[in-house]
Amino acid sequence: MKEQEFIEVYGARAHNLKNIDVKIPREKLVVITGLSGSGKSSLAFDTIYAEGQRRYIETFSAYARQFLGGLERPDVDKIEGLSPVISIEQKTTNKSPRSTVGTITEIYDFLRLLFARASDAYSYNTGEKMVSYSDDQIKELILKDFEGKRIAVLAPLIKSRKGHYRELFEQISKQGFLRVRVDGEIREIEKGMKLDRYKTHDIEVVIDRLVVDENSDKRLEETIKTALYTGDNILMVIDVDDEKPRYFSRELMCPTTGIAYPNPEPNTFSFNSPKGACDKCNGLGTTNEVNLNKVIPDDSISIKNGGIVPLGEQKSSWIFKQLQTIAERYKFKLTDPIADIPKEALEVILHGGKESFKIQSKAAGVTRNYQIDFEGIVSFIENQYKNTDSSSIKRWAKGFMDEIKCSSCNGKRLKKEALHFKFTGKNISDLAQMDVTELASWFSNIEEKMSKKQLSIASEILKEIRTRIQFLLDVGLDYLTLDRTSKSLSGGEAQRIRLATQIGSQLVGVLYILDEPSIGLHQRDNQKLIDSLIKLRDVGNSVLVVEHDEDMIKNADYVLDIGPGAGRYGGEIVSIGSFDEIINQTTLTTDYLSKRKAIEVPKKRRAGNGKKIKLTGASGNNLKDVSVEFPLGKMICVTGVSGSGKSTLINETLYPILNAHIYRGVKEPMPYKKITGLEHIDKVIDIDQSPIGRTPRSNPATYTGVFSEIRSLFSKTPEAAIRGYKPGRFSFNVKGGRCETCQGGGVRVIEMNFLPDVHVECETCQGKRFNRETLEIRYKGKSISDVLEMTINQAVEFFEHIPKIYRKLKTIQDVGLGYITLGQQSTTLSGGEAQRIKLASELSKRDTGNTFYILDEPTTGLHFEDIRVLMEVLNKLVDKGNTVLIIEHNLDVIKLADYIIDVGMEGGKGGGQIVTTGSPEKVAKHKTSYTAKFLKKELTN
User: What's the predicted TM-score (pTM) here?
Assistant: First the structure.
């Protein structure tokens, strides 16, 4: 075989990898699988991808590299046969409200180009098609239409604006012009001439007056040039006899009213550019406006007693002194109910006002001057929201505001000019609001509606748009609209969008590394995703996928199984080869694939406790006025194809309602009519996959709170008591007990100017994080540093007689994380591990038996065996009377549920309804549900 048919990795030791050598075939679809925490990501991302990135950065000059910050060399002896690497991970979505599906996939960029080059403009005043002429066309039209008539050629300067314009008339007169037309009347310019500054005016300067005949050709040409120069590319011709104006322009112009649009460019249609963005909402489509019902919820209370919520009750402050002054001016008292305050006074209080007035004091017979200079409560809240840097003040101001659709652009994000450019009858916003399926069918026969000129301009652009739309359809995202913001996408959706973008770029000879692309994907769409990856491979790329999905493993050309256990018990390659080769070997993965091992379906389903929460009329995003019951004391599973509305129903509607009811949460739920049954639960816990800590100082021991217990245990040892050490002495985050050389980090960062920073073990404490005195304190012969080095399994034995510590550690062990060390940096934990630590942290708290747990796709990153362990833990929770609600596509989880709520049918506009509910056996009999079809197979297996 030729040398370069494989990517060869020698001596990989990143994280828990045990010095492994591996050959991965190039230009094949290769799946890396194994238990969660066994070292899959360490091999794919921290070794192969990291080395590819490092080599890419090495190609820059030393000067450029110092700005990039170098990358560490991964812990590997050598890698051969590596091509340029592109990683498509889940975490990298943009949280900016300006990033949309259209901008990420670049479809919107091509649409902007299409509209800039091939659209027709229409007047927003009359709806007529806009016209633009060259100088020669203008001359020809004037000669033809005004032949033998007396005309005046004018240049418009001012259109419907107020002012006295004295300087403008002086300037015109200096340029040698003698007459102007003001508000439809031609006048000679006089010295010191000015207009009424409070009325709106139209002003045009008279460039020339002439009779149109065959001799006026040359003169007309000069006049047109001067008029277009003076009038900023617009001129106006008036027949002196009937005074009806006609407009001509080099730019786009309405032939009747003379309004002009600048010539379109791609950024005329961009809501991220000042040229295209709506001026009111800056291209966001929504504005925050003060809701007066939140400012004055009850107008029967007086100002003194706190009727104006932002001000609270009366105190001796400047604002209340101003209100007292306003009260004297408008003759009311601060003790009057707000409903009785005069209208104009309330207007000043809410929106501000400036005035001076005199009040005669009857007793002393003196007149006193008062000054009102009040900005108004509404303006104050708006200014605080716009101009403050403090997030708490911003949050306070936002409490009195509602986010509403922008009234100027109606949520379409663009200026009205941009929305009046149409391509075969649709503007760009109409296209951005269609879902991908609609868009594909609209573009499929568009040529029939296009003019010859449009066809010649747009054929290339259309080709690009169609291929990109097709890629989105291929990865199962047909329900998304182009104007959907990227922050509202799930991790799996965002990853598949980036996959579609990559397939669209048509690169060849690249190594793509994907991290579980099947997350959040219904079995129905799984085959589409696999086909897309096969397409990437067939073009001539190598595709490396970290994945647990059975279909993906079966379709792979080559499988690497890493194990045998997780953490320090993993990091070795247990089997390698094609699916048919590995299926007969006995590893944990193949046991499940060959059904030698399986997650058993329970014999009978739980009946629950008879109570329920009922949500009525949920209508957020694509939900169609849905009403649904959640029976308590059961394991509930919410299923349905991607984009059907599961997350909207649970994360955006149900969870914020429960959170607000129990903990006074601030997040606004999506619209719903009513909810009943909240009194049956007293705790709600939402467990997601976000990282548990973003700094290397955070670790499982600190996150679960077990480290505080261990520190207080150490401070109670006889030696610590003699020395007077408190629990803080055993913290590596505060001065006192930690090693000050590395400030408790255990490693020191050495900055190398042109090379990447090097992390070296701290020479003072040898990586132990604490100083010598602290390490002398021992419990059962172990120092605090030794305890942080223990795995959870070792620590459970070590602390078994200390109930507080044992309980917390035991739950971490029960969720299958016995292999991680207490002091492992949070940043090195996988998504699935982080979620299970959160789960363990919640499980170790005393539950009430009325707790409502919500888990969003907890099986992400989990192997079949991990899922079995996780479900055992969740079942224990439900057995104690709690309710567990899981949003999930994984059939191993769905078949264990007591109650299924299937949302569908399709994604996007075709979704948002409850298809069926009931036990798995009942749901499996449903005729049209997609979930039922796959569940039936799973239950009969």
Answer: 0.79
